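Standup notes
- DV: blocked on the single-chain target, sequence here:
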Amino acid sequence: MENQIVLTIIFLTGISLLLVFNEMAYRQLGLKGEITRKFAHFTATLSTITFPYLFTSHWYVLLMACLFLTLLYVSRNRKYLKSIHDIDRVSVGSYLLPLSIYITFLVSELQQNKFLFILPMFVLAICDPVAGILGINFQRYNYQIRIMRWELKKTWIGSLSFFVSCFIVSLIALYFHRVSFDSETFYIAFIISFVTTLVEMFSWRGTDNLFIPMSVMLLLILFL
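- DV (later): unblocked, structure below
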C-alpha cells in the first residue's frame, strides 16, 4: 500500500509539472490555446498507459481523477491554466478526460485485461490530437463535413487523419497483443478505426474524450 501511495504522489507531481511547463510555454512562446491544450492532452493521456502496471486498485486512479477534476474546475472559474481553457469553443473535454481514464481503468480491472485500458488510451492520446491539429492547421482543400443539409463541426482532413492514425495505432497494438499479423488483426483494427472515426465525427463539445475510449473498449470486448 505504501508503494501505491508513493506512486500516486509521484504521478500527481509529474502531471502538475507538466501543467506548469505547458502554461509557461503558452505564456512565453505565445502559442495558441488549442496547441498547448492538445499537447497536455497527448502527454497526460499517454502517461496513463503505465497505470495497469503501476496501480493494483482503481481507487488510486479515482483519487487522481477527482483531484484533477477539482483542479480543472477551480482553474477555469478563476481563469488560471489558460493553456488548457483558452479556446474559441465550448468544450467539456478537459473535465471528461479524467472521468474517461478512470472508467476505462475500472472496466479493465474488472475484466482483468490490461489491453482494455491500453489501446483506448493510445487511441485517445494520439489520434484525437492528430485529428485536431491537422484539422485546424490545414485550411486549403479542407472542408467541414456535410451530411445532407447537416454541417458537422469536423473537417475531412481531421477525420481522415483520425482514421489513418487510429488504424496504424490499433494494428501495431493488436499485433503485440495477439502476436499475429493475420486477417483478423487487420479486420479488428479497421473496425475500431471506422467506428471511432464516426464517434469522433459526431461528438460535440469535447465528448469524444469519453466516447472514443468507451467505443474502443466495447469493440475489444466484443471481438477479443
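- Follow-up: The chain has a mean pLDDT of 86.
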